[in-house]
Amino acid sequence: MRWLNPRTLFALALLIVLLPLVIWLAGSNGSGVSAEAACVESWNQDQSALALGQHLFNSHGYRSALMVRGGSGRQDEPCLLVMSALEPDPEYDIAAFLYQRGTWYQAVAGEGQVTQTELIDRQSEARAHPNIGLSPSGTLVPY
């Protein structure tokens, strides 16, 4: 077996070790957190959310966001969508949204879900590790 030389064996071993890492990185967006498919689907099927998404895109200039499950990440936890921004939005209550019990609502309005200070931190996190894009039609597009 002429092809079975030390160089070929080394290359094969390297491939076996690195291939899983390359596959994992190709599927990752840098944060290691993928957008929740159920959350994305709920937004993209909600006409009010789509209209809001169009407003966020056109009037606020948002192009990306971080979508996660609140708290522990369990399926019964609310979806949290935080728009990424370099600077806090002057309309801070329009920069983060929760989806719970079949409804999207502003995360900082009512029930005290996210404070303005927490929102600033979460928007910075969303800027550093976005996992979803916002299209001109208002739909969310996972990275």
General description of the model:
- This protein is α+β, with helices and mostly antiparallel strands and 143 residues long.
- It contains four helices and six strands, in the order αααββββαββ.
- It has a six-stranded antiparallel sheet with strand order 4-3-2-1-5-6.
- It is globular.
Query: Which structural class is indicated by helix and strand composition?
Result: alpha+beta
> Radius of gyration, rounded?
20 Å
Shape: globular
What is the string of SSEs from the N terminus onward? HHHEEEEHEE
| Tally of alpha and pi helices | 4
DSSP strand count: 6
Q: What low-confidence regions span 5 or more consecutive residues with pLDDT below 50? A: 17-32
Mean pLDDT: 77
Strand order of the largest sheet: 4-3-2-1-5-6
- Distance between the amino and carboxyl termini: 44 Å
Helical residue percent? Answer: 25-40%
Q: Major beta sheet, specifics?
A: 6 strands, antiparallel
Beta-strand level of the residues, as a percent range?
15-25%
